[in-house]
Each structure stands twice: as structure tokens, then as C-alpha cells.
Structure of Alcohol dehydrogenase N-terminal domain-containing protein:
Amino acid sequence: MAQTLPETMKALVCEDIGQPLQLKTVPTPLPTPGSVVVKVLAVQSQRSLAAIIAGKTPFTFPKPLTPGNTAIGRVAATGPDTTSLAVGQLIMLDTFVRARDNSDIQILWGFSDGFTPQSKKFMADNWVMGSYAEYVRAPLENTWALDEKRLCGNPSDGGLGYSINDLVSLPEILIPYGGLRGINLRPGETIVIAPATGGFSGSAVFAALAMGATVIAMGRNEKVLQRLKDNFPRVRTVVNTGDVQADTATLRALGPIDAYLDLSPPQASSSSHIRSCFLALRQYGRASLMGFIPTDLALPYSHAMGNNLTIRGQFMYERADVKSLIQLAESGQLKLGVAGSYEICGKYQLDEIEECFQKTEACQEAGQIVLITP
Ligand SMILES: NC(=O)c1ccc[n+]([C@@H]2O[C@H](COP(=O)([O-])OP(=O)(O)OC[C@H]3O[C@@H](n4cnc5c(N)ncnc54)[C@H](OP(=O)(O)O)[C@@H]3O)[C@@H](O)[C@H]2O)c1
């Protein structure tokens, strides 16, 4: 297939923190050694992006920036060292980028240049153009081929019948999947996920079920908990009442609990569910801490000691997790889109970004996705 790229393209640009995103016409990027150029088809509107651009989070980024996050696209032009990807290939563009010569230097390409001078330089010098654009130049190793025939093919031909937009649930699941793999969740185990009603935490429930676990979904939002229970026979629910003793007893009654994945947002820093979940873990239980909790917390130290608990912090995921998640989806075990309990709440073009942000603000519950289709 010919590698023809238009000379210019539309991209959203943030000139500085606190400035609104502007739609600009900019030169279309060209592939270089180690990269391909991707036509962006669909990308989730990142829930925290409006706050990040407004400077209301600890994340920083080089300016000007074209923001973005993990997207679904098609290879539009290959580089001189591309060996397997071809023009037209459907791909998932993973925005967790590690420096090639030092994988400890990491950025969240499109919105965070990390927390070290090296990571900030790495992003500023290389990766200031993210996926909220018609085209994006992408590192080869972050461009993951998807089996389009299997994922999007007709079920009568052995396909799973997903639309391109359905595939956007893959990136949403990838983050909690990293946490679940990090504590080696096994089929047949019981895991408590708390909270379980938000964007990433809801996806953690879907991922754990696909991995063969029984899920205890814990949270305060009883409407979403009920929906999870109604949709999945292997989901049990526990309401976070704030009473540690009572909630621990309720959890234990549903156990033994092998594992606990925490995805608490900052505002849940003082929530009692963290203590209840630790206290409910069985002997040799494992806990994965994935939430952004800015303060130090007291943990039930002697319970952890007496029960040989393993506690793991988890930032994002490993490269092997990406491949594994794609396999899980292509096998049909992990359901995407409507079949996976996702709902596309809105779909916006690049020039509708303000409406898109408003919709995103209103759609933060488990399974809700707002799309940008450049
Ligand atoms: N480790 C990583 O690599 C990584 C990557 C991405 C995101 N994260 C973090 O993961 C966390 C979860 O993401 P998300 O999209 O699921 O978050 P979210 O939608 O902001 O929040 C999840 C849930 O938190 C609960 N919650 C809110 N305030 C609470 C409070 N005061 N007390 C107790 N519960 C409260 C709510 O559930 P209920 O109302 O039902 O209680 C809400 O549905 C965030 O902190 C995010 O920054 C981590």
C-alpha cells in the first residue's frame, strides 16, 4: 500500500498550562527510524485531561503539547526499520512510553512527562505530539498489531463483530490488568476490587472476571454495584458503609479472599475500605495498590505480618501485559464494547473538545466511555 501522507493535518494543541486546547493545522509527522505514523481512528477522552491541562494535578508536560492517550488507529506510513507492521494494519497505540536505553525513564505520552529531569527531557525532545490529532508518529515498540479479522470480522466468519469504537475499551482495561497480573491473579480465585464503580476500577472488575476470578466489587455507589451484580453472575457486591468492623465481616463472609486491588482516587484517602479490605485478606493474600493516594496511610501491620500478606504498589503495566491483554480479547475471553458492559456516552470530533470535556466530566462511572474520533 502506498505511504502517502497529507502535508498538513489537524491537531489539538495546548500552548501552556491553563490555556484552552486549540485546533491547529500543523505539518503531518513523518516516520523516522524506530517509529511509524498512525492515522488515529478513535481514542478515549481521558477523564483527567481537562484538570491536567488546567494545572490542577501533579502532572506536568512540555509546551506546546498535543495531548493524547492510548488510541486505536491504522498504520499510515512505516519507517526504515519497520519489520512487521504494514500500512493499513489496525493497531493499538500504547502511550506508556519507556526510554529505549533505560526502561526506568517513563512518560505518559500525551499528558505527563514523569517526575525526573531525564523523563522530562525525553518527552520534550521526542514525544510532544500525542493522539488528539489526525495522525501521530509513534514508537514502534508501542504500536501493537491487532487482528482485525478476528476482532472486527463477522461472527459467521469466526469474527467477534466489534466496531473500531468498541476496541477503545482495551486501553481502559489495560491499566487495571497490569495490577491484576502484578499480583498474579489466578482463575478460580476471589478478589475484592475497591472501589469498583469508577472508570478504571470498573474495568478492573471486567478484567478480573475475564481472568477467571470471582469478584467482590466494593464501593458506595449502590446503583453501579447493582448493575455489576445484574450483569455478571460471578460478581458479589459489598457496600462501603464506613464501619470497618462491619465491612470486614461482610467481606470475610464472602471469602476466603485471595487478593485485593485498590484503585482509590485521592478523595478516598481517608476511606475506611482500605483497612477493611486488608483485614479481610486470607493467609498469604496479596494486595495491589494502584490508586493515587497523596498521603501516607496507616496499615494493619500486625495483620499483614501474621497472615504473610504480600503488598505490591503498581504503576501502569509491563510490556508483556499489553500483549497478554490483546490475546485475551482476541480469544474472546475478554469482552469489549457493549458485550463487555461498556457504553459509549458520546463521540466527538477534534473541534468539539469543549463539549467532549463536559460530557467526560458527566460520564465517570464503570463502563462509561467518551470517544474522540479525529
Ligand atoms: N497506578 C496506576 O498506574 C494508575 C493509572 C491510572 C489511574 N490510576 C488511579 O486509579 C484511581 C481510580 O481511577 P478511576 O478512574 O476508577 O477513578 P474515579 O472514577 O475517580 O474514582 C473511582 C471511585 O472512587 C470512589 N470514591 C470517590 N470518592 C470517594 C471517597 N471519598 N471515599 C471512598 N470512595 C470514593 C467512587 O466510588 P463510590 O462512590 O462507589 O465509592 C468512584 O467511583 C485514580 O486515583 C487514578 O488516578 C492509577
Observations:
- The mean pLDDT is 96.
- Residues 8-145+341-372 form a domain with the Quinone Oxidoreductase; Chain A, domain 1 fold (CATH 3.90.180.10).
